[in-house]
Amino acid sequence: MSENLSTDPTKIALITGASRGLGAALAEGLAARGWHILAVARTTGALEELDDRIRKAGGSATLAPMDVTNPEAMIQMVKAVMGRWGGVDLWAHTAIHAAPLSPAGHIDPRDFAKSVDLNLTATSGLIALIEPLLRGRNGRGLFFDDPRAGQKFFGSYAATKGAQIALARSWQAENAQLGPQIEIATPAPMPTALRARFFPGEDRAGLAAPRDEAERILTALYGD
């Protein structure tokens, strides 16, 4: 992990899928609030661009160009975070695989396997690894619902995204009294690369900006 650390950051946010879209917008919004950002994503260049924007605005970040589907890499990351900070105050999980739209009877097995691997299996593994980090600082987990069940051609995405949220809701219920507190937000449609895969060529004028959605979600969680 490469670092640009503030002296003693008050709050630590771990964002998986931080390089673009809502993940990047959350990172910038939290950094503007004085949080230190642990940004995890596979795309090094996009992470570096995020870091440049955060630093230009006076914030700080640690970059972790890693694949969340690699259990060994995630174990090492969590050990490093625990050793450096003792935990995190927020884990926002925005990493997702958007399989191409397809009739249910024609879903590519490789795409479906990748959807299961990232959207469900990796999420389950991350919950187990990150739960101690959240408990170490009385933190929160944050997931993002995108209900597509029953919509034509969304079978691969809807099944695995829905399963991810079902897992998050169970984790939420299990920790309702002792924590960590688990939140599930439903963002408005945004002009992200993920949405462009589903709706190529759509008029994006009426879509919500990721930065605006990030601010709305963060204000609901933490106030202004």
UniProtKB/TrEMBL annotation:
Entry keywords, A to Z: Oxidoreductase
Coiled-coil regions listed in the entry: none
SUPFAM superfamilies linked: NAD(P)-binding Rossmann-fold domains
Alphabetized InterPro entries for the sequence: NAD(P)-bd_dom_sf (IPR036291), SDR_fam (IPR002347)
Domain of life, per lineage: Bacteria
Family affiliation: Belongs to the short-chain dehydrogenases/reductases (SDR) family.
Protein name: SDR family NAD(P)-dependent oxidoreductase
Organism this protein belongs to: Paracoccus cavernae
